[in-house]
């Protein structure tokens, strides 16, 4: 067993479809743990997943999690370092960095979320209510 330091991760890659720099850390029972980083002023492309929830733990920085359930208006949930949020299956979501420093997060999701189970969605930032 070898520990993984979240503040000295593997280099990772830039996921162009999602719009986020990610490094896969470990896999456990079909869930993958990723370290993500969003540049200042940047955001993840809006998307949703049909199967399985997704969990974000904000490690540093501040952001807004835009989300929209089918038939409802989009809204913004402000997140800061230490916040943990679960995004249910089927909910469109988009994380935006609201800080002048990179937003770093640990996110956990089924393996399929970065492959076949990702549907891009119209941008949620402009349509959100507070």
Write structural notes for this entry:
The chain has 130 residues and is an all-beta fold. It has a single domain (15-108, 122-126), classed as Jelly Rolls, CATH 2.60.120. Helix content is 0%, strand content 50%. The chain has no helices and twelve strands. It has strands at residues 13-15, 20-28, 31-38, 47-48, 54-60, 62-68, 74-80, 84-87, 92-97, 103-110, 119-120, 128-129. The strands form three sheets. It has a six-stranded antiparallel beta sheet, with no helix packed on it. It has a four-stranded mixed beta sheet with strand order 9-6-7-12, with no helix packed on it. Strand 6 (62-68) and strand 7 form a beta hairpin. It is globular, with a radius of gyration of 14 Å. It starts with 12 loop residues before the first strand and ends with a strand. The model has no long low-confidence stretch (mean pLDDT 87).
Which terms would index this structure?
single chain; 130 residues; mainly beta; Jelly Rolls; six-stranded antiparallel sheet; four-stranded mixed sheet; 12 strands
């Amino acid at each position: 067993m070898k520990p993984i330091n979240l503040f000295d991760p593997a280099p990772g890659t830039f996921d162009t479809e999602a719009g986020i720099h990610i490094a896969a850390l470990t896999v456990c029972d079909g869930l993958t743990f990723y370290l993500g980083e969003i540049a200042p002023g940047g955001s993840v492309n809006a998307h949703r997943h049909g199967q399985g929830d997704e969990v974000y733990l904000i490690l540093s920085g501040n952001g807004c999690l835009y989300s929209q359930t089918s038939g409802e208006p989009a809204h913004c949930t402000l997140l800061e370092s230490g916040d943990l949020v679960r995004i249910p299956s089927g909910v469109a979501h988009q994380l935006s960095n609201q800080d002048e420093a990179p937003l770093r997060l640990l996110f956990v999701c089924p393996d399929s979320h970065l492959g076949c189970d990702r549907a891009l969605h119209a941008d949620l930032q402009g349509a959100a209510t507070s």
